[in-house]
Design a protein that fits this description.
Layout lengths: L6 E6 L15 H10 L4 E7 L22 H11 L3 E7 L4 H6 L32 H15 L4 E5 L9 H9 L11 H22 L4 E5 L8 H4 L5 E4 L7 H12 L6 E6 L14 H13 L3 E7 L8 H17 L7 E2 L3 E4 L1 H4 L9 H12 L4 E4 L10 E4 L7 H9 L3 E5 L17 E6 L5 E5 L11 E3 L4 E5 L3 E9 L16 E13 L2 E4 L3 H8 L2 H14 L5 E3 L5 E8 L4 E8 L3 E3 L3 E3 L6 E8 L7 E5 L3 E2 L3 E3 L2 E9 L1 E8 L1
Parallel strand pairs: 1-2, 1-8, 2-3, 3-4, 4-5, 6-7, 7-8, 10-11, 10-12, 12-13, 13-20
Antiparallel strand pairs: 9-22, 14-17, 15-16, 15-18, 18-19, 19-20, 21-26, 22-23, 23-31, 24-25, 26-30, 27-28, 27-31, 29-30
Helix pairs in contact: 1-2, 1-10, 4-6, 8-12, 9-10, 12-14, 14-15
Length: about 650
């Protein structure tokens, strides 16, 4: 199979039957010119959309009533003429035309409402259950497409393990002599339904067009579900930061994907907000940064657009995409077949299915934010990962210790950093990891205060508010790095003080942070706290603990907190590639993160602990040599200017 290409286009075309004609302005030369303008070398083009229409000459389905030619076929051949790969987009989970014809094939909630859009009187799509005859209908469409057209891949949308209580699923439970009123009876059915669908797609491809790519898109690659990931030939990490994903999501997702041994794309969009937005454009600098984030994390790039119903490719869009992809094209040779270097493994909440008390996995998000801002190299990992690769394992907030996890940690030789409930047994409130402490109780005060026995980088020492739930502990051989201070009382209707919460009484409430030979324990749900409150004192307390645990960090730098770093090794070229990025996001509207201005930063000091003798350092793609020095075994250099993204190559 050909490797994924770096500059991919995802071209939506969800077009209502109420719009006619469609495609009337499509022109092969204009289509090709826009692909060239965008520096695009791979694309998903539409065979079937969410509305249920197909865009080719079909014997199994109905072509869009406003289309009078084979648009899909012309796009595929036009792309191939200029050397652009073309994969077929197929809306698998949604098919609005068929909802009216076969509502009995739709997914159902317990109350008989439907998925995505609850009823038929509200505008929106309805999702199909693959444990119904709809699957055979979908498979006939897939078979027709890969038989008739020389596509390079399949991209099947709106799929995954779904909860469904339709009568097909109810009957499947009954046939297995299980209780249809028990939710647990359905879970194997849902898993098997999805596995059956992906295996049938693979069987079709292997029989008719072996070797093409297959990707099943569910909008998020679940950490800890390697089995679901491996149902694809590669991963595409959908993450449009100006939509609900935000700029936190992609680093969180990619730092898990990079350990799976698969190729992967980072997927963003050209839109101001999200999919289906006509006339919305983000600033060109945003796409420069987002594609740089893809490259610095070992990903190829994908940018989403939506074709206008007339079929004419929008010139402004492809100039916007080309602005970013022109830079990607220059950088590809340093971003191929790279291995990410990490000091820390973060055992993901999501991978362990141990959410926060509100059901979220916000501690994963908070951990990523702190480590990125602290310039600590990390992977998001699951329990199947090799812990021995890392100097420190982080257990964020809610990671209770199962028997399997205890066996892994018992054989692990590095340090452990745990917060909140993490480190406690899964079935009782006793520490399974020895941090030199004993558990007393879930702390009765919330919020309360942490008074460190060390100076914070920015604020020295004080009694710092802790907003999250804490665990009350006592020493049993560990060293106290900070203490808990109790407030006078919890805020209540008959006992409150001032506007927000009660001040510290100065009363000792037990240890707050403790260290021993195994690692450090911090007694609050601090990563959740950083995700939801963003307290600088929480972040700096955590970074102080990690500095104690990682004495030989791979990278040290004075790049400001909004900057990001990564270190990749390109073994076949005997070189390391250090990536540095810097932009500042701002909030616009009510909840949209925007990148507009790229402000350069200067004179950035970088120090690296590498296991190879470095013989040359230069900037890429400029190929300009820079000075470096070896001090106490570390490679030190100064980057004179960073403007959005810079690679520094160290040859050995």
């Amino acid at each position: 199979m050909e490797k994924l290409r770096f500059r991919h286009l995802h071209l939506d075309f969800h077009t209502s039957e109420k719009i006619t004609p469609i495609g009337q302005d499509f022109d092969k030369i204009q289509f090709q010119d826009m692909l060239k303008t965008g520096h695009i070398n791979s694309a998903n083009v539409f065979a079937k959309c969410h509305h249920g229409w197909v865009y080719y000459d079909s014997e199994t389905s109905e072509r869009h009533p406003g289309l009078d030619f084979d648009l899909f076929g012309q796009m595929v051949s036009a792309a191939h003429e200029i050397g652009v790969l073309a994969a077929a987009y197929i809306s698998a989970g949604l098919d609005e035309k068929t909802t009216r014809e076969h509502p009995e094939w739709l997914m159902r909630n317990k109350d008989e409402t439907m998925s995505w859009t609850a009823d038929f009187m509200t505008p929106g799509y309805h999702q199909f259950c693959f444990n119904s005859p709809y699957l055979d209908y979908l498979l006939s469409q897939v078979q027709e497409i890969i038989t008739k057209y020389d596509v390079d891949g399949l991209w099947l949308d709106i799929v995954g393990v779904r909860e469904c209580y339709c009568q097909n699923c109810v009957n499947a439970v009954i046939k297995e002599n299980k209780d249809p009123l028990d939710d647990a009876s359905y879970k194997p059915i849902w898993e098997n339904t999805y596995a059956n669908y992906t295996s049938k797609i693979k069987e079709l491809v292997d029989r008719i067009k072996p070797g093409i790519t297959i990707f099943h898109n569910g909008g998020h690659s679940r950490r800890g579900r390697r089995d679901l990931a491996f149902m694809n030939t590669h991963l595409e990490l959908e993450s449009l930061p100006t939509s609900w994903w935000g700029y936190d999501h992609f680093p969180l997702s990619v730092r898990y994907a990079q350990n799976l041994g698969m190729e992967y794309l980072g997927m963003t969009g050209k839109f101001h907000t999200s999919w289906g937005e006509f006339g919305g454009y983000k600033h060109p600098n945003a796409l420069l940064y987002e594609t740089a984030q893809h490259l610095m994390n070992g990903a190829k790039c994908s940018i989403g657009d939506q074709l206008h119903p007339c079929g004419l490719m929008d010139k402004t869009t492809y100039e916007l995409i080309g602005h970013a992809y022109k830079e990607v094209e220059k950088k590809e040779e340093w971003c191929t077949d790279v291995t990410y270097i990490a000091d820390v493994g973060v055992l993901s909440q999501e991978s362990m299915n141990m959410p926060c008390s509100d059901g979220s996995y916000d501690a994963d998000t908070g951990t990523v934010r702190i480590l990125l801002e602290g310039k600590i190299l990390f992977d998001m990992i699951d329990i199947d990962e090799d812990f021995g690769k890392y100097k420190v394992i982080i257990l964020p907030d809610t990671i209770r210790i199962t028997d399997e996890l205890k066996n892994k940690l018992d054989s692990y030789k590095g340090k452990i950093f745990a917060t909140g409930e993490s480190g406690l047994n899964s079935d009782k409130n006793e520490f399974a990891v020895d941090f030199g402490i004993e558990w007393v109780q879930k702390n009765e005060y919330k919020p309360d205060y942490f008074k460190p026995c060390f100076d914070l980088k920015s604020l020295n020492r004080a009694s710092f508010i802790m907003y999250s739930q804490g665990q009350k502990i006592k020493l049993n051989g560990g060293k106290e790095l900070g203490v808990r201070e109790n407030p006078y009382f919890n805020r209540s209707v008959f006992a409150f003080c001032s506007h927000l919460h009660t001040p510290s009484s100065g009363e000792y409430g037990g240890p707050g942070m403790v260290e021993n030979e195994n690692g450090i324990y911090f007694a609050w749900n601090t990563f959740y706290e950083y995700a939801t409150h963003g307290s600088i004192t929480t972040k700096e307390s955590i970074l102080h603990a990690l500095d104690r645990l990682i004495s030989d960090k791979t990278i040290k730098t004075d790049l400001p907190s909004q900057g990001c770093v990564s270190v990749m090794e390109q073994k076949y070229n005997n070189r390391f590639v250090v990536h540095l990025t810097y932009v500042s996001t701002v909030k616009r509207g009510k909840n949209i993160e925007i990148i507009e201005d790229i402000v350069p930063v200067y004179d950035i000091n970088v120090s690296l602990n590498l296991d190879k003798k470095i013989k040359r350092a230069y900037l890429a793609p400029q190929k300009t040599d820079i000075d470096f020095a070896i001090n106490d075994g570390r490679v030190d250099f100064k980057l004179q200017k960073l403007e959005c993204h810079q690679m520094v190559v160290l040859e050995y």
